[in-house]
Amino acid sequence: MTDVLQTSSVVSKLFRSEQGGHEQVVFCQDRASGLKAVIALHSTALGPALGGTRFYDYATDEEAALDALNLSRGMSYKNALAGLDHGGGKAVIIGDPEAIKSEELLLAYGRFVASLGGRYVTACDVGTYVADMDVVARENRWTTGRSPENGGAGDSSVLTAFGVFQGMRAAARSQWGEPTLRGRRVGIAGVGKVGHHLVEHLIEDGAEVVITDVRADAVDRIRARHPQISAVSDADVLIRTPLDVYAPCALGGALNDETVPALTATIVCGAANNQLAHPGVEKDLADRGILYAPDYVVNAGGVIQVADELHGFDFDRAKAKATKIFDTTAAIFDRARTDGIPPAAAADRLAEQRIADRTPAADWLRPEAG
Ligand SMILES: NC(=O)c1ccc[n+]([C@@H]2O[C@H](COP(=O)([O-])OP(=O)(O)OC[C@H]3O[C@@H](n4cnc5c(N)ncnc54)[C@H](O)[C@@H]3O)[C@@H](O)[C@H]2O)c1
User: Fold this and answer.
1) Rounded to whole angstroms, how far apart are CA atoms 238 and 256?
2) Structural domains for the chain
C-alpha cells in the first residue's frame, strides 16, 4: 500500500503539478553496476534540458525521484533567466557515492544520457566531480563540466563569483543610484571557491569587506592577501554587524525567521543556493526594505560556463554572457516595482514568461525591450 501511495505521489507531481508538470522522467537501472538513477526533464521549450547529476544517498527512492522533479524545475527557471537556449533538467543517482561510485556505474549512466539523444545535457552537482564527468562523457556528446584536458571548462566558481558581483552592482544601482560598491560595507558568509573570488571583485571596486567562515584556513587565506579585511566569528554575528550588503556564500536557508529581522544590510546578494528558508521570507525582506537579488539569478555564472562548454569552451564568450546578469537582475527589480511584488516572485514571472513565449536567447532582454 505504501508503495502505491508513493508512486502515485511522484506521478501526480509529474502530470498534475500546478506548475504544469514535467515533460519526461526516465527511471534508469543497470543491475551489473548497481546504478539506479532518475533523469527528470522539466522543460525543453527553450532547448535541450540542462542540469547537473546529483549523487546522493537518499532515504527512499521516492525522495530521490521528488528531488529530481524539484531540481529540474528549478533549472528551467535558472536557465531561462541565465539567457541560455536550454530548458531545465536534472538527474539523481541513488546511493552513497563513497560506497558505490565506480567507472562501470558512471559509464552505464553515460549510456542512459546518450539514450536521450541530446534532449538532456548533464554536468556536475553534489557528489559528482569533474573526473566523474570525464568518465560519463566517454558514452555521449552531452556531458559538460569535464576537465580542461578533456575539453571541459574547469572551475565554474570564477564566473559564478563574477555573476554575483554583477547582480550586486545592479542591486546597488537600484538602492543607491550608482552601480558600484565603492565605499559600501559588504559581509560575506563563506569564503570558499566562490566567496574568495567575490572578495577580489569587491576589493577592486573599492568596497570594505567583512568575512566569516567555519574554516579558519579559508579566512586566513583571504586575510593574508588583504590584511585590511576584518573577520567575525560566525554568520549570526556577521548579519548583526553594520553592513550595506550581506552576501550568503555558504549553505542554503541563510534567510529565515531569525536572520531576516536581525539583518542590518539593505541588500542581500550572494552565491548560495536556496537562500530563502521557506515561502514568505521574500515578503519579510521586502517589508523591511531589504532588496533581495534572487539567488538562482545571480549565481548563474556556473551554468553559463557549462553551457558554453558544449560549443568548445571560450572563457571570454562565457564571461560576456555572465556580464548580462547585471541587466537581468535590473529587469527583475523593475518588474518587482511595476507589479508590486518581491523580486523573487518577479524573477519567477519573467522566467515563466520567457518559457511560455519560447523566446530565443538572442531576442531576450535586448536593450529596446527594456
Ligand atoms: N561553485 C559554483 O560555481 C556555484 C554555482 C552556483 C551556486 N553555488 C553555491 O554557492 C555556495 C558556495 O559554493 P562554493 O563552490 O564556494 O562552495 P565551497 O564549499 O567552496 O565554499 C563554501 C564555504 O562556506 C563555508 N561554510 C560552510 N558553512 C558555513 C557557515 N555556517 N558559516 C560560514 N561559512 C560556512 C565553508 O567552510 C566553505 O569555505 C553553495 O551554496 C553553492 O551551492 C556555487
Assistant:
1) 15
2) 2-74+88-146 (3.40.50.10860), 153-370 (3.40.50.720)
Which tens digit of pLDDT belongs to each residue from 103-120?
A: 999 999 999 999 999 999
For 64-82, write each residue's pLDDT tens digit: 999 999 999 999 999 999 9
Ligand 1 first shell, C-beta below 6 A: 156-157, 160, 189-195, 212-215, 218, 235, 249-251, 271-273, 299, 302
- Closest-CA residue, ligand 1 atom 5, reads 302
Question: Is 0.85 surpassed by the pTM of this model?
Answer: yes
Q: Is 319 a catalytic residue?
A: no
The per-residue b/e assignment along 93-122, b for 16 or more CB within 10 angstroms, e otherwise, is bbbebeebbeeebbbbbbebbbebeebbbb
- 153's CB contacts (< 8 A; 6+ apart) are 144, 145, 146, 305, 306, 308, 309, 313, 315, 318
